[in-house]
Amino acid sequence: MMTNKAFSHLTFAKLPINNPASQDELLAHARYTITPVEHDYAGKTATMWNAAYLHFKMDVVMAMMVGETRQAKEVLSDFKGDPQYIGGGSGVGFKDENVKYVDELDPLAKAIGSINLIQKLPSGQLKGWNTDGIGYRQSLEKLLAEKGLMLKGAKIVILGAGGTGNAIALALAEKGARVVIINRTLEKAEELAIRINTFVGDTCAQAKGEDSIEEEVKDASVIINVSTKGATGAFEEYSALAPAKLPATPENIAENMEAAKKVFDTIPKTAILSDVVLRATPSPFLKEAQERGFVTLDGVPMVVNQGVEAFIIIHGNELGVYVDLRSQVYEIMHKAANF
Ligand SMILES: NC(=O)c1ccc[n+]([C@@H]2O[C@H](COP(=O)([O-])OP(=O)(O)OC[C@H]3O[C@@H](n4cnc5c(N)ncnc54)[C@H](OP(=O)(O)O)[C@@H]3O)[C@@H](O)[C@H]2O)c1
Fold first, then answer.
1. pLDDT computed for residue 5 by the predictor
2. Is pTM, for the whole model, over 0.85?
3. Fewer Cβ in 10 A, N or C end of the chain?
């Protein structure tokens, strides 16, 4: 059995289910997709994709593999030369790296500056995509539609301007939302707002510091936390609606929660409150939003939708005969991810 050099730089992730454990197991299939990540963790990507391959009886397998990001260029070039490789994910650590080595970029991915998907085109060239923000956008659009509302023209306050904030803010602005990006480090929010306005050719994005949260949420249709406030670890007891001073002493947490309560009182009751953090229990921001009766959106539909969108980009044409393919893939992936 022929193998390509890329495999000498990568090891198979030790996922509890649904990840090939060896090259032989992987290469026994007609085609394969790979998602490189910089460290081993219980990611859901291979589990979700392999469940879909099984369901549609496709002779394809996805493997999450662990490698060093400094070898990204070599690894991609070796995979590119292998006819069995048809693309795949671009996971933790590789998202910003792989963007430099694909042959072509989808315009949204180019504006974001990071990719979570690689598609091998019929020409053999590699195209980079970013479906993270699109995945979030789809989950929000569904919720807005249920309330008879549209994304276009809606005022959306985005708390955070890191990698995920970038992807979400650009994807929402691309479809006409007005976004206000509020970040602890104002310069990062300003840089993102300029990039968004350049991308959409409009002035739909504004940047603010955390001292503007109260003012900006007063007339917001949607408020999304994409900062690490509320994520497991040092920030897990902090609300996203107010600054979070470390260390996480009872006094600092109480100060944050008190300030957040004041802000909550000013949010229109019709607003959708959302937090993309993935944790076993709702974040303090989402918990209080639920207690106050707001419509809320957590990070789960985003993870599933970004996978669905990616799967459809790679396999949509060959699975075109299936009616309602997107919702079928969503059901399969959601069940497989088992959140
Ligand atoms: N649901 C999903 O599918 C999904 C996918 C990816 C990520 N996520 C979640 O999204 C969150 C952000 O991830 P990321 O990759 O964007 O992280 P990141 O690139 O490291 O960005 C972190 C963000 O949090 C802010 N932040 C950190 N400490 C803060 C503090 N003390 N006070 C206020 N803001 C603070 C940062 O502000 P500065 O710029 O000032 O440092 C920055 O905006 C994480 O909770 C992650 O788990 C969810």
1. 87
2. yes
3. N
